[in-house]
Amino acid sequence: MVKYLNQTESMNIDKDLFEKYKFSVDQLMELAGQSCAIAIARTYPSLKNSVHKILICCGPGNNGGDGLVCARHLKQFGYFPEIYYPKRTNNILYENLLHQCIENDIPLLKNDVEYIASKQLHQYGLIVDALFGFSFKPPVKDIFIPIIRLLENTIIPICSIDIPSGWNVEDGPPEGGIKPEMLVSLTAPKLCAKKFQGKYHYLGGRFVPKKLEKTYNLNLPEYVETDLILLLN
Amino acid sequence: MVKYLNQTESMNIDKDLFEKYKFSVDQLMELAGQSCAIAIARTYPSLKNSVHKILICCGPGNNGGDGLVCARHLKQFGYFPEIYYPKRTNNILYENLLHQCIENDIPLLKNDVEYIASKQLHQYGLIVDALFGFSFKPPVKDIFIPIIRLLENTIIPICSIDIPSGWNVEDGPPEGGIKPEMLVSLTAPKLCAKKFQGKYHYLGGRFVPKKLEKTYNLNLPEYVETDLILLLN
Known about the structure:
By secondary structure, chain A is an alpha/beta fold. Chain A contains seven helices and seven strands, in the order ααβαβααβαβββαβ. The interface between A and B is medium-sized, with 32 and 32 residues. Chains A, B: Residues 10-220 form the YjeF N-terminal domain. Chains A, B: (6S)-NADPHX binds at residues 62-66, 133-139, 162.
């Protein structure tokens, strides 16, 4: 049985990947975001070349970075992502990831939730929630409350990257929290994923060294052949 | 018909990807090496969990970096790569890529071709040629002559990454040059690929922005669904 990680374990594994195994953030973010795009394309093939676009909501940290990479790979796969990115961090990595999206003709939406909500939200066939990741601690900051409320109340399917945003990383959803239809757990699932009641739970991020897997007793299931994602449920 | 690039075009595209599109080398090398590993795993599935290991010969530049990334993904896919890396460049990126391989329990072989040749070469089911890429200009430097001779004379199948090493990037093989069974062209094929007479020619590196494709009239064939490689012949 695969291990579900608590917040401290998640942070320690992340630290090990960068400090001990000397991966760069660029490398692992590329693989993480790519696996999310593959999982989405496999699950929602009807959105390819469709009038229904995909809204990618990106947060200020690495989860948002995964979202930007995911958007770019979705575009390569023939989908039409659009990016909502309300709070940007001054960081050359994120700036470049955003630049790559723009140069791949992915629209960057106006920084205004009212606008998003009024902008015929039904034109989107899927919303990707890349707002907060495994280092999130409540409460949600003021600036993100409107988009979280929008995600809580929409009937459009949501795919959350690693953590459904606003959920406690270990305990799961708050009262009325968002209900993603799909979740892509990166590296290994976090404890809150036990409370996931959507249809599709994937594992992505096929880059965990065996040695690290053993150190943390992750007991990861085996990916099939060269697949970069694995359906867990 | 897909365009075959001359050396100047190859270099200009590379420059654009990094300077104009602001990709990092880490990102694109990760995707390039990953696509090579996927192509190899699809072509030689019998080498998985087999006594026949894969010898990865890495050169001093980015082609060698692609080889290191390819080795790591092959290991993730259940293959047994070993690395021969005769001349290393002082560069934190390559040092980290090598470190990641070692931490993934991929053996780094002694820096000595005689040793490689004597080391029961038949234990390898495939040799990956990641020595020189599209910026190669003859002649082959002395230090690489022994490994090039070994590749020219072996009966073990060879998979070349982007350019069969020792070949002229535009004109193709020198007299007696290596004859790879497989070639993975990255981004777009180079002119020398027209002289490729092996069995499997793949395209990899699915990250080319449409805008760049148009600028250079690459006329890339369409990848299928979420596939990261495409068989060209």
